[in-house]
């Protein structure tokens, strides 16, 4: 896999408050880097800098070797997905997904072919002519995901995209994300405060703590880092299980 994104020495502060401190990371094509961190640790600021919505104080960002800093957000070929699926309320599901192709002047037969195929893949075919307000939260997030995928972005930036969903729907969306990511070889940076979600979706793992990013060579290293709290949670459930079976 070739290197897609390289970030080196990235720092950002607001007033006297450092938010990101000397961040460095690399992301190869097709990888999903899951970044775990608590609220306020700098995750959203990192994504906004990559998307071009914030400017770093120091550091370099390159995408396929191109310096990203002078590139405006609309030319970075990235899509930033939030918790709230920002859909056009006056457009159908089909037209929401087709929007990116229409503004690129793709011809109608090709739009129909691509959108129909993607809706089927996202299990949205029967909802194609519905308006966003007629959908469940999980369905709206799938439409948002489809609208991002249809334009074939070089990088997906996901800011806790499933955080507002109930547990069952969240699990289903994680499974869908993994399946579609692998099929389309999507490169993503996925930030979350949920350690289980990070382990589920990430092909690589990192932890952001008070603006400092730690990357892990293995899943075992990630689990054993006390800041992720995974080892403590595993120990808790092991204790509960042993207590239940000995009762």
From TrEMBL:
Domain of life of the organism encoding this protein: Bacteria
Keyword Membrane carried by entry: yes
Residues in ABC transporter domain copies: 5-235
Signal peptide: none
InterPro entries, per database record: AAA+_ATPase, ABC_SmlMolc_Importer, ABC_transporter-like_ATP-bd, ABC_transporter-like_CS, ABC_transpr_FbpC, P-loop_NTPase
Keyword Nucleus: no
GO terms of molecular function: ATP binding
Keywords: ATP-binding, Cell membrane, Ion transport, Iron, Iron transport, Membrane, Nucleotide-binding, Transport
Protein name, as recorded: ABC transporter ATP-binding protein
Organism, scientific name: Hymenobacter canadensis
């Amino acid at each position: 896999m070739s290197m897609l994104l390289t970030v080196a020495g990235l720092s950002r502060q607001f007033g006297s408050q450092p938010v990101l401190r000397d961040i460095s990371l690399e992301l190869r094509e097709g990888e999903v880097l899951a970044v775990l961190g608590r609220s306020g640790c700098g995750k959203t600021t990192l994504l906004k800098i990559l998307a071009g919505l914030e400017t770093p104080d120091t550091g370099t960002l390159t995408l396929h070797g191109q310096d990203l800093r002078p590139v405006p957000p609309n030319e970075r070929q990235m899509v930033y997905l939030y918790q709230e699926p920002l859909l056009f309320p006056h457009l159908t599901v089909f037209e929401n997904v087709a929007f990116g192709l229409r503004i690129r002047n793709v011809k109608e037969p090709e739009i129909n072919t691509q959108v129909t195929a993607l809706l089927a893949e996202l299990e949205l075919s029967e909802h194609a002519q519905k308006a966003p307000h007629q959908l469940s939260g999980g369905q709206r997030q799938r439409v948002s995901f489809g609208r991002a995928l249809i334009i074939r972005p070089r990088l997906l930036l996901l800011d806790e995209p499933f955080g507002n969903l109930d547990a069952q729907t969240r699990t289903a969306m994680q499974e869908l994300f993994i399946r579609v990511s692998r099929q389309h070889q999507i490169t993503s940076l996925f930030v979350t405060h949920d350690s289980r979600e990070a382990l589920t979706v990430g092909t690589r793992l990192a932890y952001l703590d008070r603006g400092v990013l730690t990357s892990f060579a293995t899943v075992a290293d990630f689990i054993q880092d006390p800041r992720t709290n995974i080892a403590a949670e595993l120990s808790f459930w092991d204790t509960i299980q042993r207590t239940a079976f000995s009762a």
